[in-house]
Automatic annotation (TrEMBL):
Annotated ranges, domain HTH gntR-type: 25-93
GO MF entries: DNA binding; DNA-binding transcription factor activity; pyridoxal phosphate binding; transaminase activity
Organism: Actinopolyspora biskrensis
Domain of life: Bacteria
Protein name: GntR family transcriptional regulator/MocR family aminotransferase
Signal peptide start and end residues: none
Family of this protein: In the C-terminal section; belongs to the class-I pyridoxal-phosphate-dependent aminotransferase family.
Length: 470
């Protein structure tokens, strides 16, 4: 029996790994193959911590050289990654395989550890933030005196800045005092989690776009809610297909994630009529509603039906997700329920990011950044779409946001394309990650914000070749 290993247990140590010590294949190759297969089968999952090379060598009764070589190979392929001072973790699994992350995007650890060109959706153009404006805003934010009591609803100046932002960039007029309806949040997912915990009855059914944002699904599940699919097409959620028995619908009408369509006016009206008739809440995730490049965006649902719509916004796509700042606009009874929940649990969004956004807005730096952001991403999108079209490759999605969709014929095609691109140093996202129920969509979502324009241009020939262009 191998000796017991002290310290935190790893799922890897529970696997029966058999190494052929008499065969011609090196032990390191056998071990790497075994770990790769375990991740594919779901025996090892993204986020699982692996034992150290020394501990695994003792467990398998092999030389540490063997385990180190196996880890090095898997690290180079992007299956595992080390975190400084923490250890080594599984970071990847093939799309559609058992045990693949159900997160709506490529896992953050995977993107952070990947050494290549990131073309994953959901990431902002952080390099485009004016560093002088950024530093100036932080200095001004730091001049605010420490608060004695927490602002459960959010810093008042921040909430006022959000009202102005919604008017200027989303055409949404907030009626009445901001304190009656606008709350600061930690982002759209945390806002949805608070809504689920404080407003929606435990066990109630909530419809979520399918395919859709899987972190929203997990947030709803964590609050004991039933999630049911709301099918989408290239124009967004199909209103007539939403199940009758739901208490709420979570959707992204401005730029459906991940397909990229915009919900037409006729469907918006039909959706609001169904919600009012059935007593639903509509949760409108406006995650990148500021980013449209062809026409003015359609009015947000909250401006059409403030009585049944909870509007969620975030700075994660226009600035950076590390800021952890968003907002919620809802009927007053919903806002009050969330405030009572915060009071009971002692939770509230952190004020630092709120003060930063307030200062960026106060000086006009936020507006300047958004104008620059729209110009840059519009040009990148045109470059990407035109290159693919010139090679005979179909793409989908409105002229908006920071990603497009390239449809593919099936699961095998999707897996093969992702693997080939990864092998050539390009990380993209597959639609398989965005399904929770029966899968009907296959393809890759290409983000064009996280990399530089030069990286995007240099990667285009690889994309054309691996996506099947002539």
């Amino acid at each position: 029996m191998p000796p017991s290993i002290p310290g935190p247990a790893s799922p890897l140590l529970e696997l029966a790994i058999e190494l052929d010590r008499t065969g011609p294949r090196p032990l390191a190759v056998q071990l790497a193959d075994a770990l790769r297969l375990a991740a594919t089968r779901g025996q090892l999952r993204r986020g699982d911590r692996l034992p150290s090379t020394r501990a695994l060598a003792r467990h398998l009764a092999v030389s540490r050289t063997v385990t180190a070589a196996a880890y090095e190979q898997l690290h180079a392929e992007g299956w595992i990654a080390g975190r400084h001072g923490s250890g080594t973790y599984v970071t990847a699994a093939p799309p559609g395989a058992e045990g693949v992350s159900r997160g709506g995007e490529v896992h953050e650890d995977e993107s952070a550890s990947f050494r290549g060109t990131l073309l994953t959706p959901g990431a902002p153009w952080a390099e485009g933030i004016d560093r002088a404006a950024w530093r100036r805003a932080w200095r001004a934010a730091g001049d605010n005196a420490p608060a004695t009591l927490p602002h459960r609803a959010g810093v008042p100046e921040y909430r006022a800045a959000v009202v102005e932002h919604l008017l200027r960039h989303r055409g949404l007029v907030v009626e009445g005092p901001a304190e009656n309806s606008v709350l600061a949040t930690g982002g759209t997912t945390s806002a949805l989690a608070e809504l689920a915990a404080s407003v929606l009855p435990r066990g109630a059914a909530v419809a979520v776009e399918e395919p859709g944002y899987q972190r929203a699904v997990e947030a709803l599940h964590a609050s004991g809610l039933e999630v049911v699919p709301a099918p989408v097409d290239y124009s967004g959620v199909v209103v007539d297909s939403i199940p009758e028995h739901v208490s709420a619908l979570y959707c992204s009408p401005a730029h459906q994630y991940p397909i990229g369509g915009r919900l037409p006016a006729q469907r918006r009206i039909a959706l609001i009529e169904r919600a009012r008739a059935a007593g639903w809440l509509i949760v409108e995730d406006d995650y990148d509603g500021e980013l449209r490049y062809d026409v003015s965006p359609l009015p947000v649902l909250a401006s059409m039906a403030p009585d049944v719509v909870v509007h969620l916004g975030t700075t994660s796509k226009i600035l950076t997700p590390t800021l952890g700042v968003g907002w919620l606009l809802a009927p007053e009874w919903v806002s009050q329920a969330i405030l009572e929940y915060r009071e009971l649990t002692g939770t509230r969004p952190a004020p630092a990011g709120q003060w930063l956004l307030t200062e960026l807005a106060r000086n006009g730096d936020l507006g300047r950044h958004l104008r620059r952001l729209r110009r840059e991403l519009s040009g990148r999108r045109e470059l990407l779409v035109a290159t693919l079209a010139g090679a005979g490759i179909e793409s989908a999605g409105d002229r908006a946001g920071a990603h497009i969709l390239v449809p593919l014929g099936g699961a095998d095609s999707e897996r093969e394309v992702l693997a080939r691109l990864r092998a050539r140093g390009v990380l993209v996202d597959g639609l398989s990650r965005h399904h929770r129920f029966e899968q009907q969509w296959y393809g890759v979502a290409l983000g064009y914000a996280a990399c530089s324009r030069e990286e995007l241009r240099a990667t285009l020939p690889t994309l054309v070749r691996e996506l099947g262009g002539e």
